[in-house]
Amino acid sequence: MTDLPGGPRRLPAAVLWDMDGTLVDTEPYWIEAEYELAERYGGRWSDADALNLVGNDLLSSGHYIREHMGIDVSAEQIVEELLDGVVGRVERQVPWRPGAVDLLDRIRGAGIPCALVTMSYERFVAPILARLPAETFRVVVTGDRVERGKPHPEPYLTAAAALGLAPDQCLAIEDSNTGAKSAEAAGCLVLVVENHVPVLAGPRRVFADTLDGLDIGEVWSRDARGD
After folding, report:
1. Among the options 20, 25, 57, 175, which is catalytic?
2. In the chain, where are the structural domains located?
3. What CA–CA distance (Å, rounded) separates 103 from 80?
4. 18 is a catalytic site residue
5. CA 55/CA 177 separation, integer angstroms
6. Is 20 an active-site residue?
7. CATH 2.130.10.10 given to domain 2-25+96-221
8. Considering only CA atoms, which of 69, 74, 67 is closest in space to residue 31?
9. Which residues contact 130 (CB under 8 A, 6 or more apart)?
C-alpha cells in the first residue's frame, strides 16, 4: 500500500514505460524516414509495411525493410540511416503523447520508480531524456543493450531485475501487440493505450483510451490476477 492524496492506495512497485507510441508519438517520424530511405535507394514501401514494424526491435525491422523494400543495403546500415532521420526530427521537436509527462510526474511524486524499456537505440533515446528532469527513469533499457528484443521478455525482465523487483510487481505501459507480448511474457501487468495499431486482449492486459488523467491505482486494481 502507498499513501497518496485520498488515502492509502494499492499501487505497483514500479512502472515500466515503452517509449515509441507510448511516451512519445514518434511513429510518424519513423514512417517518414522509411519513405525517405525507399526514395533514396529506389525501393518500394507502403503504410501497411510501416505499421507491421510497430514495436519491433530495430535490427529485425532493418531485415524486414531490406526484404520488403527490395533494396541492397544491410540491415545494420538501414537502422543507422533511419536513426539519422528520426534523431534529427526529435532534436527539433519531441512529440509527447497526451498526459504522458503529467503521469510521469505524478508517479515520481508518489515515490514509485520508473524504467524506460524501448527497442530504440541509445542515441535516439538521449535527446528525449534530455527534455525530462534528471533521474526521471531509474533504469533505461534500450534495444542495443539486450540480446533479444520485444516480443521476447528479456527487455522487461532486464528492467525489473535492475530495479530489484519481480516482474509481477511491475506495471508495464505499452501501445503495441509486440510490446504487450514482451511485458506479458515477463510477468508484468500491461496497461495498453492503443495508438497506431490495434492490440489484442489478453489475460494480463488492461486497456485505457489515454494516459491523460489516468489513475494507475485504479488500473492496478483491475489486475486480472485476482489477488
Report:
1. 20
2. 2-25+96-221, 27-92
3. 32
4. yes
5. 7
6. yes
7. no
8. 69
9. none
| 27-92 CATH | 1.10.150
- pTM summary value: 0.83
Task: Give the C-alpha separation, 19 to 179, whole Å.
Answer: 10
Query: Strands across the sheet with 189-192, in order?
Result: 139-141, 114-117, 14-17, 170-174, 189-192, 205-207
Q: Do domains 2-25+96-221 and 27-92 have the same CATH topology?
A: no
Q: Spot the catalytic one: 3, 18, 144, 227.
A: 18
Q: How far is 59 from 77, CA to CA, in rounded Å?
A: 10
Instruction: Extract the C-alpha cell encoding 122.
Output: 541509445
The per-residue pLDDT string of the chain (227 residues; one tens digit each, 9 = 90 and over) reads: 343 443 445 899 999 999 998 999 988 999 999 999 999 999 999 999 998 888 778 899 999 999 999 999 999 999 999 999 999 999 999 999 999 999 999 999 999 999 999 988 899 999 999 999 998 999 999 988 899 999 999 999 999 999 999 999 999 999 999 999 999 999 999 999 999 888 999 989 999 999 999 999 999 987 644 44
